[in-house]
Amino acid sequence: MKVSRRQFIKIGGKNLLGAIIIWSAFPSLLQGVSSPEAVRKVSPAPTPTQRGHYWRFIVDIRKCIGCGKCVKACKLENDVPLEPEYNRTWVERYVITENEEILVDSPNAGIDGFTADYMNIKYRNLDIRKSFFVPKLCNHCDKPPCVPVCPVGATYATKEGVILVDRKGCIGCRYCVQACPYGARFLDPRLKVVDKCTWCYHRITKGLPPACVEVCPVGARVFGDLRDPESAVSKIIREETVGILKPEIGCENKVYYVGLEEGVR
Amino acid sequence: MNAETENRKNRHLVRAGALLLAVLVVAFVVPRVMPVPAFLEDYGFYPKRSAENAQEWASLPIKYVDHSICRDCHQDNYGVWEKSRHSTISCESCHGPGQAHLEQGASLEIDTSRESCGVCHAQLPSRPKGFPQVDLAAHGNSAACVSCHNPHAPQIGKSPRIPHRLEGHSQCLLCHGEGGIKPIPSDHRAQGQDTCLSCHKK
Amino acid sequence: MEGFIYPNEVNLEWDLLIAIYPYITGLVAGAFIVSALYHVFGIAKFKPVARFSLLTALAFLLVAPLPLVIHLGRPERALEMFLRPNLVSAMSGFGYIWMAYLLLLLAEVWLVFRPDIVRYAQSSQGIKKAVYSALALGVYDISPQALATDNRIIRLLSLIGIPAASLLHGYVGFIFGAIKANPWWSTPLMPIIFLTSAAVSGIALLLVLYVTVTKLRKASLDYECLHSLALWLGGFLTLALTLEGLEVLSMLYESAESWEIIRQLITHKIAVTYLGVQYALGTLLPLLILGGAELLKRLREETKTYLRVLAAALILIGVLAMRWNVVIGGQLMSKSLRGFTSYVPPIWGEAGIITATVLMLLPFLLLAVFTYLIPPWQAEVKPPEPRKVGVWWKG
Q1: Looking at chain A from residue 27 to 66, which residues have their Cβ under 8 Å from any Cβ of chain B?
Q2: Most exposed among A154, B86, B155, C103, judged by the fewest C-beta atoms under 10 Å?
């Protein structure tokens, strides 16, 4: 069979073009899509071969006194900007009135506590049915909506399921900020990259609790390994009724709440 | 029509195709084959390395230390605190992060203001019911909380035994002044702080 | 700030620049649809604007990435989007889709205008000759056989261009529609809403531009073409209205947990731009005007033209308001569903009104350069004959 020059170029060109397209997409297919970090499935129950930590964070709403020490410790430990609009963790105050009204506030993200007069004037004449504090932080979801949306794969889940941001790779598009249902992400105004709670990754990998857990005076924040049956989180999960925020969104959060009230979101 | 003349006829398409190919190669193949010099990494050529990045996060310095280390130097306070109701509270919860104190001897926070205690103990409807709270405006006559309560081992609702020794109690009127726990009668002869000790000895 | 918002929600992250970005890509897709209606679907009445619409699409496509890059926290890293995209991200599609579409559009423009380019190259002197012969890639073959081959490729590219244009703009809708965290965005209708409004804005833009440029050239208007443009505009506008209305209507009817905050959003926070500009001024009024211009037989063609241009201009404002209402409106609302943040675009600065205005004027400047280099109005160059769909490139 004779192949003319034109046909040769045509066929060769087509194949080359196809090869280029596939080749150029392939590394990212390998790295971005199929890597366990990028699209992590929920791990099954621990098996003897599959050791390693499986972290859980528990917030006990019934214990929280709203002192805000966790917010302050987080900012100091992780060098988070001190302005109130940049937070890896914060504390909300819920006030439910006898008229079924739900009022929420978080003055300065709760870093100064809730005792200043200006924070309490508005509640002075209310008929309060109940009130409580709800500490918030990144839920390090097992199905994180923030991870797949990153156009450059700069945010990922580590082997233990901690969601981190690669600050050298983040381009600052903030799609992940939009995708997070919990408002846990923000753009660091100094580096112009996205920042979020790391569960104090530098502490938990050294066997220390996250800074917010360390300073909580009442034990309202508990952190530990679910694969260790003796850990405090394992005990609480066994003994208490726990819930997660916005379960209908289906993120499979790894921050559990004890004493979670209907209406908290 | 033979292939030779047809080829000449569509030379413009061949050239356009070649140009397209060149663009695609430059855009998609070259950056993947070319070794990336380090200075280009911040200009879009950053290789994805999440395992390394996790290591970077893990190697950040800690600032809040393990509080058991405080005992090495501060046995006295540590021993008192350890057995007290405040033993659930880590040292750095009130005194601030300790790493700089350990390494460079930087001074730690010692905040004895009423506000500092009030952050936890001022009365708020949102706090758990059983948690010890006081109305700061009505309690303690505006005195520093630490003049009665030892923050390392606080006691609730325990005034000094009666009659109590004067030793260690310098501000008589905190408790015995107007608005105190046990105010002196309004017709009491001397009202000034300085004069208490002239009659009341020991 | 009203009610409660999460502390990190104080700053609105996707600002004015991100609101004009879908506006620009929408104009690209819409302008391309007009050229495709001529090249692929054989709607001969669009012949006077077919070549112009291609240049319009190209001019806006070239500007489309600018607002995105300026908005990035780290614009110097923008190339990462091409070099290490995370393909499961809807946004990473931008790199590939934009690039592919740009190449496709460039190829089509080149083939459509090649006979002109070759003639200019042959007839001009000096630098001009160099520019045109470079544009012609040094090949001056405009024999009937060569042009016939070109025409077949043009139709093929147009055919591929329709899904490509749909993808280019549909994915922008998907970027918003697939965010389950935001009930104002999260709807599978979003890509289709974006597409129909894209067609609306593109046709409206061409109508305004065609009339303006023709008046400036002191040439005569093709009223048949205008009539067709107006009809298609009305059709797409009705479709857009239906879809956009349907979306809110089903939210109202379902009255899910998020409805209360959405109700406050559209009747209070963005009432002016939503009910006022997007619906009343940008949809209902133009529909009435367009309907009047088509139905009232007694109107002079001149009057009809003015009415159509007026309607199209209102529609262009309405679609811009729609982009604002989606992008900014969705972020005003807290994801706690308990309150609103506030946003007023600054005048100066990176994401200010001045920047946005310059970005919106840039495509018109490019378009002026294009029409100067390769005027799309020449009637004597025989444009490709419209044929039926399904032509394949085969010698």
Answers
A1: 27, 31-32, 35, 37, 62-66
A2: B155
